[in-house]
Amino acid sequence: MAGRKVITVFGATGAQGGGVAATFLGDLGLRSEWDVRAVTRDPSQDSAKQLEMKGAEVVKADLDDVESIVNAVKGSYAVYGTTNYWEKASVEVEVQQGRNLADAVKQAGVQHFVWSSLLNITELSKGVLPNVYHFDSKAKVESYVRELGIPATFFMPGFYMTGIPGDMLKAQGPDGPWVFALPLSADAQIPMYHPKDTGKYVKAILQNADKLLGKRFLGATAYMTPKEVVERFSKAFPAIGANASFFQVSEDMFRAAMKGKGMPDFIVTELFENVKLMDTFGYFGGESLEPTHELVNDSLTTWDEYVKEAEAFKGLL
Ligand SMILES: NC(=O)c1ccc[n+]([C@@H]2O[C@H](COP(=O)([O-])OP(=O)(O)OC[C@H]3O[C@@H](n4cnc5c(N)ncnc54)[C@H](OP(=O)(O)O)[C@@H]3O)[C@@H](O)[C@H]2O)c1
């Protein structure tokens, strides 16, 4: 239909891109204006079929294959671009995938590219935290997008609240107390973000293009301290919450625990510095979330809401 716009979503079968596709397919206002093109390497998988059933056009492309990306973005008004560092845990791969996408976006004349970026922590920390590779690599792609002069906004996802239950916050043994354990001080600032909200941020970005082209846009519901994370958890589940606490893990304990899970040394160091960042230079360099909250109209998922739906907390009283 004339006048309709296409948003092509990379990572549509995953957490962030899935959030974008869900919002653009589910929000009646957006649906009257936008068509969703969902990108996956495997259109036969269930998550891709679900997207098709909900009305998305599913296309096959691989960020390692330039020609497939060029075809995927053709005719798009907007593109949401995300890469999954953790699949290969390689800076070279992530930067190359981001550059491939930027080149295709430039070639297709896309009017608004939303790149899922992060800050360059080596620069922010002046070399004190030089190993947060998955942040630095996304920032390198951001620089490349700027160099190419692509009309873009840089979305900066916060700390996934979905990563906390069952892993960082869990019971110590079958009837043991609940402990939130990280190598952080109790008053560090965690930018709490739910990836299913990604579409709400992207909606605000596209609807405020005049204000946000060329800018960064932070993604988080609120900053919370580890102490507050536990307090809210205890309030939601008073029976077991009475004994819940935050425990500041030492660097040695953290390293031993990660190595115990079979992680190679460079990833252990990367994760340690990633967490330490929130205690030192700040995940977002200390920036306020207010400019984001002024422009996002849809309600963002709070930790209080999420604890009630998290699988690892099911059945708690
Ligand atoms: N955890 C956190 O707190 C946090 C915070 C900020 C940022 N991040 C970043 O979030 C990123 C992961 O995003 P996510 O959580 O949405 O991931 P996810 O749920 O694991 O999904 C990964 C998505 O990437 C797609 N993908 C992977 N490799 C691809 C390729 N070569 N070509 C095309 N598509 C590809 C997958 O699509 P198919 O498999 O269908 O092809 C899938 O849709 C990571 O880079 C991480 O650094 C995480």
Name the features:
317 residues; alpha/beta; Rossmann fold; seven-stranded parallel sheet; three-stranded mixed sheet; 16 helices; 44% helix; 18% strand; globular; binds NADP nicotinamide-adenine-dinucleotide phosphate; NAD(P)-bd_dom_sf; NmrA-like
Description:
- The chain is an alpha/beta fold and 317 residues long.
- Helices cover 44% and strands 18% of the residues.
- β2, α3 and β3 form a beta-alpha-beta unit.
- The longest helix is centred in the first third of the chain and has 18 residues, at 91-108.
- The radius of gyration is 20 Å and the shape is globular.
- The termini are far apart.
- The structure holds NADP nicotinamide-adenine-dinucleotide phosphate.
- Keywords: NADP.
- It holds the Pfam family NmrA.
- Residues 5-307 form the NmrA-like domain.
Could you give a short description of this structure?
The protein has helices spanning 15-26, 28-31, 46-53, 66-73, 85-88, 91-108, 121-124, 133-148, 198-207, 209-212, 226-236, 238-241, 251-260, 265-276, 290-295, 303-309; strands spanning 5-9, 34-40, 57-60, 78-81, 112-116, 152-157, 159-160, 169-171, 178-182, 190-193, 216-219, 222-224, 245-248. The chain is an alpha/beta fold. It has a domain at 5-157 and 195-219 and 285-298: 3-Layer(aba) Sandwich (Rossmann fold).
